[in-house]
Amino acid sequence: MVHRARHPAGCQSRFAGRRRQSTITQQLAKNLFLDSDKAWSRKLKELGYAIKINFTYSKDEILELYLNSIYFGEGRWGVQGAAQQYFGKPVDKLTLPESALLAGSPKAPSAYSPVKHMDKALERRNLVLSLMKEQHFISDQAYQEAVKTPITLNPNNGADSLKGKYPSYVDYVMDEAEQQYGFTEQQILTMGLKIHTAMDVKVQQAVDEVYKDDSMFPQSPPDQQVQSGVVVLDQHTGEIQAILGGRGVQVYRGFNRATELKRQPGSSFKPLAVYGPAIERGYTPDSMLYDGDLDIAGYRPRDWDGQTRGQVTLREAILSSWNIPAVWSLNEIGVQNGIDYVRRAGINLTQADRSLSIALGGLSEGVSPLQMAQAYSGIANQGTLAAGACHHANHHQRRSRLGGSEATASAADHAGGRLYPDTVAARGDHVRDGPGRRPRRAPHSGQDGHDAAARHARIRPDRRERGEGRLVRRLHAGAHRRNLAWLRSNRR
After folding, report:
1. How far apart are CA 57 and CA 137, in angstroms?
2. Distance CA 410, CA 444 (A)
């Protein structure tokens, strides 16, 4: 829907052309169709789109589209959203002083925000009014009355139940909309896109509450906060039910430790790189594995307790996380078989990872909590991955609607294959049900834009009823130097 604002439009046309080298049409083309990189190829595409827009729309229509796509501060994109944000009314009900305030804000939305900088906003509004008088858009009397009018804010946020909530989840939903479905950030924020997500609000709130409790984390060093990221997904569908990308204040489209952080997975990689493919090749939970001094071409792994036991069962090796049996087993079945199994679990390793060190989670790049949660979902789902090898197939989004048309995304659209045969799944159950299967808790080591996304794209959880099930959770914790990771699968 296009919203018209006479006074802001008339004034904006004079300001925008003076403050940037690009024309309003070029800025509109960039906002609607392109990203913000500085490459010449992007500038050429921008020029091409601008020419097409000029041939398709009148100048007034271009100006309207521009005003509906630019940022006005306080998480609001588009003049209609700004009118609601600051004055609680539609744009066609704005007064002259209110219109002038909005017309002046795009030059520096944060600096001229009346919420944070009332004096600067007032000065900027009066400058716009004076220019409108000089250029005969308004009379002297209208100008005098307008400059005497104080700025009165009356924001209408009653319908924004998600305002400021779940920023990590919102960020990743936007990433998924851009990467999988081709939407630009401006389209998501300004063009009425509705996204129905797989978020489970109760799960997400529980995660948020845990991360607010400092007692759940080790004391942070003076120079930085111990950080962490967590993702929770439903292994049956691949749908992501909760994401938290870090502790403390989070910025719009900031670094998400749940989806972007790459860390060494350590011993949590053993079931994927070693024991999964071993069971696939006939090993059982009671198979005996070597646990003694080991030297394979100079690689000498050690168990964490500094001891050896001669031989241990596969079950014991998993439950106690012995290192020597894992390396010995991978050497027996072949590194390539371990790499192939990990690839089927959705993690693509590089040529640099073609070594026995992957048995202990020593990778050249590392993996994210999201990748590990997806990989383990196949084990928790009796050998079937709910999503394909691409980890973006983990779905935040169920349905997207834009301009009257609806595109539906489900985990079935990106269905994965069998991670391992049914017999392997059954043997995995024996391992899981063995003694000591509940792992001891491992120790930890050492805004506005989110509101816009939640409001304008209407990103919201799908409020379906959920029955009993099991969730796969993956958490990385650390102070950007160390990482201890673990996975637990519990009944909700």
Report:
1. 24
2. 35
323: how many CB neighbours lie within 10 A of its CB? 19
State the average pLDDT over residues 199-224: 91
Report d(CA 464, CA 314) in Å as an integer. Answer: 41
- The overall average pLDDT reported for the chain is 77
pLDDT of residue 155: 76
DSSP secondary structure, 60-116, as one string: HHHHHHHHTTSB-STT-BSHHHHHHHHHSS-GGG--HHHHHHHHHGGGSTTTT-TTT
- Angle, in degrees to the nearest 10, between helices 96-104 and 140-147: 80
Give residue for tokens 């990467």.
179
Q: Can you say whether the dihedral through the CA atoms of 8, 14, 20, 24 is positive or negative?
A: positive
Q: How many residues does the chain have?
A: 492
Listing DSSP states for 415-483 in one string gives ---BSS-HHHHHHHHHHHTSTT-SPPPPPP---HHHHHHHHHS-EEE------S-EEEEEEEEESSS--
Which of 14-18, 282-286, 353-357, 408-412 bottoms out in mean pLDDT, i.e. has the lowest?
A: 14-18
